[in-house]
Amino acid sequence: MKLSFFLFLFSAVLFGQAEYPKDYFRPPLDIPLKLSGNFGELRPNHFHAGFDMKTLQKEGLNVYAVADGYVSRIKISTFGNGKTIYIDHPNGFTSVYGHLQRATDSIEGFIKYTHYKEKSFEIEMYFKPNQLPVKKGQLIALSGNTGASEGPHLHFEFRDTKSEKIINPMFFGFDVLMQDTKKPIVSNLYVYPLDSKTTVNHAQRRIPVNLSLQKDGTYLADKVSANGKIGFGIAAFDYDDVSFNKNGVFNVDLSNNGKSIFGYQFNTYAFDEMRYVNALIDYSFYKKTGQRIQKLFMNPPYNLSIIKSDESKGVIMPSPNLSNVCSLVVSDYYGNKTTIAIPVEYDSLSTVIEKEPAAANYVVKAAKDCFFEKDKCSVFFPAGTFYNDFDLNFDVKNNVLIAHDDTVPAHTNFTITMENSSYVNNKDKVFIGRISGNGVSYNTTREKNNVYETRVKTLGQYKLVLDTVAPVISISKSIEGKRLDDQKVLQVRISDGLSGIQSYNGYLNGKWILMEYDNKTNLLTHYFSDGIAAEGDNELKVVVVDNVGNSATFETHFLRNKKQ
């Protein structure tokens, strides 16, 4: 029976690897591959969906189609991946190229045509196979820094065209483009008591466990003593030989007395699984410290497909007169691995360090609908909003609704309602904002019979906010009446201090013009190469509207002798 299972598992692994062609795709850049982010890396509210490829700290590098196919989709967004091209290939996979500066040739022509047709910077287009065919190695775009990019680079993905699941690029032969002889680093090991009665090393809270390097290169953890259910967590990262960035680990496996009980490997997963990163990590610790501990247990279970576990779900129960030896192996795609032995024993000694106290006055049952109301304010959590039951701090003070704090992750939306008794004369200028530091963040808000409602995914403090202030439009240097013959672009800066920018439109001589919005610099940019500017005098008008309808208009005029 064991031999049959082993053969089945071995065949499944070989079959899984055989699914992905190793020599079909070329690199999208013609410079050596260096990563600033790898597949599966832990990011805020998501796992990283591909490779972030370094572009020599600059924009404008050539980006090539990795194989024959056709451009199936183009998305231009202010946030996310910014300017993005999708290419479907005949072998059933899709390649994705994000944060682009601009596309090239006919592809850019389609993009520009659609901007002006829809009179919008943010657009999304889908194409048929015969509209934009491309060849392997064809120049399709220039690399950039658009969208939510924090610096010039190319975001690159592979997807299964039919299911749209994202796939680790390493499986397509990209591993041969880099060298990696370095073991992953486990910087910290933690042990957790998993119920209210358990003590671990005489504590009722998460505690670190010291590691000692052994002569054979493995690590030995200090002995863990516990009298109830426990689980482990790690802070871990990986280096390769060329990139010098801390990247995510590829594979984690935890065994108890020789039996694998919990692990995960970043092969492929679906986009609707992304937010489970908040269940995988110790979210409260992350929000308090900025450091991510990867939990090696599910208590309770959740539906993340990369996780493989036995019936214990990674939970370990020490027994009297029986010692456990746990083994943790953390490895990268190249097979470099770090191994940690963790001795576990039963301990009946009393608690020394008690559980951290929590400020709470209600209990949320994750599997049930929960509704809380006070002073004409309410919060409703549908069943399944949270991963775990928890003690909720709910209150209303000075017209501020307190729905706990952002140390408990929500997986799906919940609803907040607040009755307006303060801004009855400006009902259409009111929204429910989340208090964030010294400011507030806007949430899409609906109003009916003077009751405001919003759906959000973040716990914290919320209040009704009145916004009657128009956005601000400015220009760094006046162009009023000046000649701009040699100038290639027009730029204005826009901002809004409360509800935020909803729309922006520019016009030259009464005709709509494309103005590209960079949210990192708050700049709107129009390129004269669009050919809209007229000979002689030109009237520029920019209109910006915020999320509650306040608008601002900027007008000026300039001279131009020739179109560019």
Could you describe the 3D structure shown?
Mean pLDDT is 93; it is low at 1-17. It contains four helices and 47 strands. The longest helix is centred in the N-terminal third of the chain and has 17 residues, at 2-18. Strands 1, 4, 6, 7, 8, 10, 11, 13, 14 and 23 form a ten-stranded antiparallel β-sheet that branches. Strands 17, 18, 19, 21, 22, 25, 26 and 27 form an eight-stranded mixed β-sheet that branches. The chain has a five-stranded antiparallel β-sheet with strand order 29-30-34-38-37, with no helix packed on it. It has 564 residues and is mainly beta. The protein is globular and about 95 Å long.
